[in-house]
Design goal:
The structure holds 2 protein chains of 2 kinds. By secondary structure, chain A is of the alpha+beta class. In chain A, the strands form 3 sheets. Chain A has a 6-stranded mixed beta sheet, with helices on both faces. Chain A has a 5-stranded mixed beta sheet with strand order 9-13-10-12-11, sandwiched between helices. Chain A has a two-stranded antiparallel sheet with strand order 1-2. The N and C termini of chain A lie far apart (66 Å). The relative contact order of chain A is 0.16. Chain B has 2 domains: 206 residues, 2-Layer Sandwich (Cytochrome Bc1 Complex, Chain A, domain 1), CATH 3.30.830; 185 residues, Metalloenzyme, LuxS/M16 peptidase-like (Cytochrome Bc1 Complex, Chain A, domain 1), CATH 3.30.830. In chain B, 40% of the residues lie in helices and 16% in strands. In chain B, the strands form 2 sheets. A 6-stranded mixed beta sheet of chain B has the order 2-3-7-4-6-5, sandwiched between helices. A 5-stranded mixed beta sheet of chain B has the order 8-12-9-11-10, sandwiched between helices. Chain B is globular and about 70 Å long. The chains are: A alpha+beta, B alpha+beta.
């Protein structure tokens, strides 16, 4: 019954949780056309999630043609050889499935969550839009208006969204990560159906995709079904893909924005590698632990020091994506406690004090043990959701890592010493790697 | 940063759409496509049987302190979820708007012997996740822990202290108030939230659901520590609490846990049920806001939890605008006219009648025309009801989605908490499914006519005043299509 558990947790002392790796019922195979398939069994409930991940996202786009990956994601619902526009969604809805899609810098993914007996329908329709997408022009003309509304809602009318878009454009001077996934409005205005047809032609082939299935299924039955629907789709040559690489130290940059907001805020981002782009993975794991030391829970340093002790910020966060396809960013953001008359300048100083502390003093063993306890527990908690299990696998595969990375992840984190953390803080938290965004209310414009 | 095709507000998201466009129209007319079952072979092969659903073996008992407990063993993962609910939401604020919310947010700020930092450190040392939240009807305290007793025992002990013996330290209270005030400033930059606040005020007048659960910039600063202590003593009592517990525990362990947690709580009585609001009249309110889109909300008071018409209203709403793609509203407003990223309708039954609500946002120059279109669509639906085909599809959808509602511990604990709080039978989920299957077109139509009047809507808009444009022409799709093949 418990064979699909990935970890059995044993308790050793008051602050140490040690995992034992158990057999993980995950099966991997590829079709002759290059489609990679990963199946994880989870027999708790008679349901299944199917996710098809394409290795293409907004970081593959070029200036003038931003927003293509996301726009194509919308158009994937507008018909294929066996289906009219919107028909697949109608069918899935009648079957009681939950379905959607998402696009990021590094990937575009489509998913269905449904009762296990309906999986075959989802696979047949997913294969059809990979092989023979219709892309009708009149549907596109209407859908691009929907996408512009999405942009207005998420970015243009949302100060935090707008600020992050401008911050990111500055923080990534060399790589495609400066492109906003939704696309610049002026590029949405001039996008054509031909652009999208070329995009689908170029990137949507079985040898550029990973199918992840998690749930109450057997690998053998999945192999039969996937071969039936995807097996005949021919592989196609793919364009040479270059990993998004950044300048290690692009130089200190800043942007000042006056937006429709009542509260000022601050974002700081340091150019750093990811697990996929580094040749020193230990440094990347150190950065992950730093992120957790700063913001891994209510006892972490930013809430404990800046929010509660100093009452400098109304809120602060640290964020680092170690699992991107190319060079990444270590981001800190904060809003000053204006009720205590704190300013952006004071918050900036306060954050720098936290970073300097990491550079000057290695964290205690107890603090690190707490961070690891949380990481370990969250590995168990994540297994409560078949969707989050599938997403973790699909994301790792799509950025050029293996889903097996997670199996050695705890050991990798255990191997990071307090001195490694100090060294990583010294190496990466430098002005030459830093982009700062100062966000002020419109009323404060000089 | 991710960008989704759609923000899904419900369990089910999908799209009923009709046909293709100009380029394919001729071929569609000359050669009508085969029925979908002939085009999608796996659909034809799919059994018409209902899908299998996980059997939920729910146990119910009462602790010696008088707390109702709902428990389901789920031994597959070495973890459990505990959810404590109290009838201690903002409907109990009286004139101190935000009191319930502030009391809830202060629980983990101190216990007399531990301060906020020590509480957080202890939970996190154990890998346990504590959270709390406060809404109109209820306040919630949750713990997610690994099930090894060496970890879970101290985590549960701490949870008990936090829920039962908060000390409400004055310095924390001042800080949390400041954070709430910052939150109110954030609200001012969000036209959707401003519209929602105004809508509830219009809908509920002097009723305790009228004000925001967070309170406001005038009410929060004057709330005292004494008020928090009184509120806690009155509403966080064992008799006013329910426990939902799901995970890797035996029934013996579950009984011991619930006994311990409830025994520490103050003793008192179950709170009185929130009174019924007075029906409100039609109104239109505009909030001027310098955004590119206008947010539009339309609402009316509808039903409470347990209303016998709720199954009919739920099913009818799935057709009108519930869930996502394929609803009439999504079809007409997004798919045919490209006016919005999303339009949704919902019933929110609470202890007292909750609202029926439609929300949509569109570019400002089309806001008036969009509002008129939505009103026409609603008027038509209430006058004529759903079609038989729409009803059959919605029933099939609800059956198919049922297994998804019990796929994870977190989904199940949420359902148990709602069943416990609203005093519903343990079989509520399957009863509800069966009720849906029995409904006729006439039942749904009659329920909508009974509860909604399209001329009595409370309407709130938030956006800029700009010159208005007419609606774009809709693109009509025929029922089915024969799409043009594109070879790769």
């Amino acid at each position: 019954m418990n064979t699909y558990l990935r970890y059995i947790v044993l308790f050793l002392s008051s602050a140490v949780i040690t995992p034992l790796m158990a057999q993980s019922a995950t099966t991997e195979f590829s079709l002759d056309n290059g489609l990679k398939v990963i199946v994880r069994e989870d027999h708790r409930a008679p349901v299944v999630v199917s996710q098809l991940w394409y290795k293409v996202g907004s970081s593959y786009e070029v200036p003038g043609s931003t927003g293509l990956a996301h726009a194509l994601e919308h158009m994937m619902f507008k018909g294929s050889s066996k289906l009219g526009p919107g028909e697949s969604s109608r069918i899935l809805r009648e079957l009681g499935a939950e379905e959607n899609a998402f696009t990021s810098d590094d990937y575009t993914a489509y998913y269905q969550v449904l009762a296990r007996d309906r999986l075959e329908v989802a696979l047949e329709m997913e294969a059809d839009r990979l092989a023979s997408l219709t892309l009708p022009e009149d549907e596109f003309i209407r859908e691009i208006e929907v996408i512009k509304e999405e942009r207005r809602m998420r970015t243009d009318d949302r100060p935090s969204g707008l600020a992050y878009e401008r911050f990111k454009a500055l923080a990534y001077p060399a790589s495609g990560y400066h492109i906003p996934t939704i696309g610049w409005m002026h590029d949405l205005d001039r996008m054509t159906i031909t652009d999208l047809r070329e995009w689908h032609e170029r990137w949507y082939s079985p040898n550029n995709a990973t199918l992840v299935i998690v749930g109450d299924v057997q690998p053998d039955e999945i192999k039969t079904l996937v071969t039936r629907y995807f097996g005949k789709i021919p592989a196609r040559p793919l364009p040479a893909v270059k990993q998004p690489l950044e300048l290690a130290e692009p130089g200190q940059r800043s942007i000042t924005l006056y937006l429709k907001t009542q509260l000022p805020s601050l974002m700081m981002g340091f150019n750093v590698p990811s697990l996929a782009s580094t040749d020193k993975p230990n440094e990347v794991h150190a950065l992950r632990l730093i992120s957790a030391l700063l913001d891994g829970g209510n006892s972490a340093r930013l809430p404990a020091q800046l929010e509660r002790k100093q009452e400098l910020v109304a809120g602060a966060s640290a964020w680092y994506n170690a699992f991107s396809r190319g060079d990444s960013l270590f981001v800190l953001s904060a809003t000053p406690n204006v009720q205590k008359d704190k300013t952006l300048a004071q918050v900036e100083t306060g954050i720098w004090q936290q970073l300097k502390q990491l550079q000057e003093t290695a964290p205690s063993a107890a603090e690190l043990a707490r961070v690891r306890a949380q990481v370990l527990a969250s590995e168990v908690y994540e297994q409560d959701s078949i969707t989050s299990q599938a997403t973790q696998i699909g994301q790792l595969e799509s950025v050029g890592l293996s889903w097996r990375v997670k199996d050695s992840d705890l050991a990798a984190l255990e191997a990071v010493t307090p001195a490694d953390i100090q060294a990583a803080a010294q190496k990466f938290f430098t002005a030459t790697r830093l982009t700062t965004a100062y966000i002020h209310p419109e009323e404060a414009r000089p | 940063m991710m960008s989704l095709r759609m923000l899904s507000t419900g369990l089910i998201s999908a799209a009923l759409i009709f046909n293709a466009g100009c380029s394919t129209l001729e071929s569609a007319q000359s050669t009508l496509p085969a029925p979908v079952e002939q085009r999608i072979s796996s659909l034809a092969a799919l059994s018409k049987q209902n899908p299998v659903t996980r059997t939920l073996d729910i146990q119910e008992w009462q602790t010696s302190a008088g707390t109702k407990v709902l428990f389901m063993a789920a031994p597959e993962l070495p973890m459990f979820d505990l959810r404590l609910t109290f009838a201690a939401g903002s409907s109990k604020d009286q004139q101190a708007y935000g009191l319930a919310s502030l009391t809830n947010a202060m629980l983990n700020e101190g216990t007399g012997t531990l301060d906020a930092g020590q509480i957080a450190t202890r939970f996190e040392d154990l890998g346990a996740e504590f959270s709390s939240g406060s809404y109109r009807d209820m306040a919630v305290v949750t713990l997610r822990s690994l099930s090894d007793p060496k970890l879970s025992t101290p985590a549960l002990e701490l949870l008990s202290q936090v829920a039962a013996q908060p000390s409400f330290p004055a310095n924390s209270l001042a800080r949390i108030k400041n954070q709430l005030l910052a939150g109110f400033e954030y609200q001012k930059q969000n036209p959707g939230q401003l519209a929602s606040l105004a809508l509830f005020e219009q809908l509920y007048g002097k009723h305790p659901y009228a004000h925001s659960s967070s309170g406001n910039a005038e009410s929060v600063p004057v709330i005292t520590r004494q008020q928090l202590q009184n509120f806690h003593r009155t509403y966080y009592s064992a008799e006013n609490a329910q426990i939902a517990l799901v995970g890797d525990l035996t029934i013996t362990q579950a009984k011991a846990i619930s006994e311990t947690v409830s025994a520490r709580l103050p003793r008192g009585t179950a709170a009185a049920v929130t009174a019924k609001p007075i029906a409100t009249k039609a109104s239109t309110t505009h909030i001027e806001f310098p955004s590119t889109q206008t947010h539009i909300l339309l609402a009316q008071l509808a039903v409470k939890r347990g209303d016998p018409d709720y199954p009919a209203l739920f099913l009818g709403n799935q057709i009108l605008g519930g869930g996502g793609f394929g609803t009439r509203l999504m079809e007409e407003v997004r798919e045919k006219r490209g006016l919005t990223y999303g339009i949704y309708s919902s019933f929110s039954p609470m202890q007292a009648p909750g609202p029926f609500m439609i929300n949509v946002q569109t570019r400002a120059p089309l806001s008036e025309a969009t509002l008129q279109l939505v009103q026409e669509l609603l008027r038509d639906y209430i006058s004529n009801g759903p079609t038989a085909a729409e009803l059959a599809d919605a029933k099939r959808e609800s059956l198919g989605s049922f297994p998804l509602s019990a796929a994870s511990n977190s989904a199940i604990v949420g359902q148990l908490a709602a069943i416990g709080f609203y005093d519903m039978p343990l079989t509520w989920m399957s009863d509800f499914m069966q009720d849906l299957q029995k409904l006729s077109v006439a039942d749904v139509h009659a329920a909508f006519k009974r509860h909604l009047d399209p001329e009595q809507l409370v309407i709130v808009t938030a956006g800029p005043t700009v010159a208005q444009l007419p609606l774009p022409e809709p693109v009509e799709r025929s029922e089915q299509t024969a799409p043009v093949e594109r070879q790769h």
